[in-house]
Design a protein that fits this description.
425 residues, mainly alpha, Cytochrome Bc1 Complex, Chain D, domain 2, 2 domains, two-stranded antiparallel sheet, 27% helix, globular, binds heme C
Length: 425
């Protein structure tokens, strides 16, 4: 039943055109028609994401402007429910070679300062492509300030991170390499040169970036390849996208778009408006030591203090614990908090958040709805991705069978509650 949304390169027999084929996608690379939207279940027609207004679904413009780019045509295969492809920067056109390279890099622990972590370490299949912890655990088991978000559809976000501090995936990739996630600090370019010189990588970098012989691989190349790969991680085709909601989920949807008012912020293909809102989680005295000001720290305005970017709700049933600080252990608690108007004890919250006075049965329907956003795919795992302290820590070479998966989830839950305890002490 599980099919990977990983795109596999398909090289055309005639000509040099390479494209990507993704399971279940429309063979012509056209986005799934949106005729299913706005049907009898009251699903509203989604607005176009602000960032994507100028892009047509199969606009080939992403290949323009980089003469050295490999002569590969790129065709997006969009899953149902994702109506526009990710925005691609002019200086990092998509290609099958680059995506394949990025995939390998994403799975390679040698990219971290001590060889302990790959990007995948904190964005694991079994954990909703997050890490099951309240707060992420970086190299040297240093706890990071925030909760790991899912990696699905990151190409659709207008800005990256809970506070939107990175405008592009490329910038985010460099930040992850440099910062506590991978721990390289000023050593990003040195690490890139080292990785790029490995026999198993040298050709791949040369091909993906049309490098002249002897040219050094830099951090920029790492970030670009990683980003190209991440843009292919599209989550659609969920029960929500295919309009196959169960009865409770249908009731949940009516609440989501109606009485519960969730659609105000959790909107568009990725169930996020891309804007910053104050929900009140983790808020307090802005002057307190170690407090997370969220968007306020980035914009430098008090008005933005404690605001965070609306997260996607895709895969949300699998990414416990919740919120930017992982302070809420279960999905039900998270839904109750949102439906009762946010956390109002310390600061005023966004006015779109109100106490909706939902019954327990209505909360249950909303919780049921959220699992209709579960992503059907999984990242194709390369190599041993076990990490002490994250997930089940064992070797995960591929999507585990159902029993193993259930175990992994149990371990994740144990992790989650443990992580929670750690974060409150
Ligand atoms: C130690 C755990 C950890 C590792 C390793 C890690 N990440 Fe993350 N990732 C996180 C956390 C935590 C955040 C959120 C941080 C924040 O918002 O301040 C995040 C956020 C992201 C985001 C933004 C998601 C969003 O919704 O805005 C992307 C994209 C991402 N990571 C990709 C990567 C890539 C690429 C790598 C490897 C270079 C990587 N991550 C390695 C923990 C990790
Ligand atoms: C005012 C905009 C807004 C509205 C309305 C809203 N949300 Fe959210 N939601 C957010 C923001 C912003 C966050 C992240 C806050 C944080 O981490 O501090 C969030 C977080 C969540 C999370 C946790 C996601 C995660 O990955 O940790 C869930 C679940 C959620 N919302 C569900 C809902 C539901 C259900 C409703 C309707 C009852 C709703 N939200 C209404 C903006 C909103």
């Amino acid at each position: 039943m599980l099919h990977a949304w990983i795109c596999v390169p398909v090289v055309a027999i005639v000509g040099a055109a390479a494209s990507m084929a993704c399971g279940g996608a429309d063979p012509k690379g056209k986005p799934a028609a949106s005729e299913a939207k706005g049907k009898a279940d009251g699903k509203p027609t989604k607005a176009t994401p602000p960032e994507a207004n100028d892009r047509k679904p199969d606009d080939p413009a992403e290949d323009a402007g980089t003469p050295a780019a490999p002569a590969a045509a790129w065709a997006w295969r969009l899953p149902k429910g994702i109506n526009l492809p990710p925005k691609v920067p002019d200086d990092n056109p998509m290609s099958a070679d680059k995506v394949e390279l990025g995939h390998r890099l994403f799975m390679d622990k040698r990219l971290s300062v001590d060889g302990s972590r790959s990007c995948y370490s904190c964005h694991q299949n079994e954990l909703g492509n997050a890490d099951g912890r309240a707060k992420a655990l970086g190299p040297g088991n240093k706890e990071l300030p925030r909760n790991s978000p899912t990696i699905w559809n990151v190409g659709l976000h207008a800005a990256l991170y809970w506070d939107g501090r990175s405008a592009t995936l490329e910038a985010q990739g460099l930040a992850a390499l440099k910062g506590g996630n991978m721990g390289l600090g000023d050593g990003v370019d040195a690490k890139a040169a080292e990785i790029g010189a490995l026999p198993e990588y040298a050709d791949a970098f040369a091909k993906a970036f049309a490098l002249a012989p002897g040219a050094k691989v830099t951090g920029d190349h790492l970030a670009k390849a990683l980003s190209a790969y991440e843009r292919t991680l599209l989550c659609g085709d969920t029960a929500y996208d295919t309009q196959t909601l169960s009865e409770p989920q249908q009731r949940g949807w009516q609440l989501f778009v109606g009485k519960a008012g969730c659609i105000t912020c959790h909107t568009q293909d990725n169930l996020s408006d891309g804007l910053y809102h104050r929900v009140g989680v983790g808020a307090g005295d802005p002057a307190a030591a170690g407090i997370d000001l969220g968007r306020g720290k980035i914009s430098g305005t008090a008005e933005d203090n404690f605001k965070f970017r609306t997260p996607t709700l895709r895969n949300v049933s699998k990414t416990a614990p919740y919120f930017h600080d992982g302070s809420v252990a279960t999905l039900e608690e998270a839904v109750r908090l949102m439906a009762s108007g946010g956390k109002r004890d310390a600061v005023p919250v966004d006015e779109a958040l109100q106490d909706r006075r939902l019954s327990d049965a209505e909360i249950a329907d909303l919780v049921a709805l959220l699992s209709a956003f579960d992503c059907p795919g999984s990242l194709e795992v390369i190599g041993d991705q076990g990490v002490d302290g994250i997930g089940s820590g064992g070797s995960k070479k591929s999507e585990p069978p159902a029993e193993a998966k259930a175990e992994g989830e149990k371990a994740a839950e144990a992790e989650a509650s443990q992580g929670k305890r750690e974060s409150v002490k």
